[in-house]
Amino acid sequence: MEPQAARVLLLEPFYGGSHKQLLDLLSAHLDSSAAFTIPAKKWHWRARTSALDFSLNVPAGPAYRVLFCSSVLNLCELVALRPDLACLKKVLYFHENQLVYPVRKDQDRDFQYGYNQILSCLVADAVVFNSAFNMNSFLSSIASFLKKIPDRRPRKDVAQLIRPKCRVLYFPLNLADVTRLFPKYKLRCGLTGPSHTDDIITAQADGTRRSGSECRRDSSGKPLHIVWPHRWEHDKDPELFLSTMVKLKEEGLNFLLSVLGETFTDVPEVFANCRPLLDAHVLHWGFLESREDYVSVLCQADVVLSTARHEFFGVAVLEAVHCGCYPLCPNALVYPEIFPAECLYATPRQLLKRLRSFCLQPRRAREHALQADVSRFSWDVLQGAFQSLLSS
Known about the structure:
Largest sheet: 6 strands, parallel
Strand order of the largest sheet: 2-1-3-4-5-6
CATH architecture of the largest domain: 3-Layer(aba) Sandwich
Distance between the termini: 18 Å
Structural class: alpha/beta
Oligomer: single chain
Radius of gyration: 22 Å
Helix content: 25-40%
Strand content: 5-15%
Number of strands: 12
């Protein structure tokens, strides 16, 4: 739609991954919107300079009533450079927050990124987080974060100024029916949702599953298939993931492995070091450009594993659950908010023990029936809330 006629202005300074997924959903389903994006490269520079970029390249639109952007954008700078946008309803969406984003040493944390997010909240009209964990960790960290200022510190109630604007609106997943890609044992073990919906497919959909003997007939000969569908970066803790896989191999356990996810400029060395050690177990190694190919691998897998030290929502894990995988995730971060305790592990030793058990008896993962209503994350459920948020 031409900017002159659009009522909602959508801005994404890091147009990739989940940021891209959300903006594409909003663009496709809002009646009157105009979207402007910057490619997802060099995140730190996008956070520093995207406000100037947008101020020079977004044309004026007299019909604009709402501005929606992710927290990568310095909203303060944008509205200062473009006074015509200052009067809009300004909605700031947090995919992540820089106050608790993991760094190897706290002195490595660049103060400016978190500070910019705090300032953006102060000028926004609505501040929206993709999980309660994201919101609570951000608000509870503001006071200690601002204490890093050596003198002339701001008043102590900055978090209280922001809190009334805040709400949680889960990231919406656009999940189509994928049962056509399921292996036979997933169909026989009850891992199909209602055929007339696009909700996440889990066994709790009707509370039933086939008998263990019927499942085993199709699945007992196939080794456990583990998928790790995350960015190849240190905050996803690939060191823990790959060291665990090597231990399974050293114990002589039989399993298959798919290591998916995007790579960026600096790939942790552990991937290259462990690849030869795991060669006999690897089915897929590296990012799959085709969405169909990616979903197909998830549908063939049995267990989706997270070893993240940073996760504010977890799109990749939920997509894998939609494809019939059993999730194994840390008992921390956002995961207790989303999954039941049976899917969570507290220590690397517990993770190894669970995977060892699944390798020895793959049907224990394949016959799962999650008692969790993950359909609440679907676009069908959340669409109305987003449309209400972006109304003027």
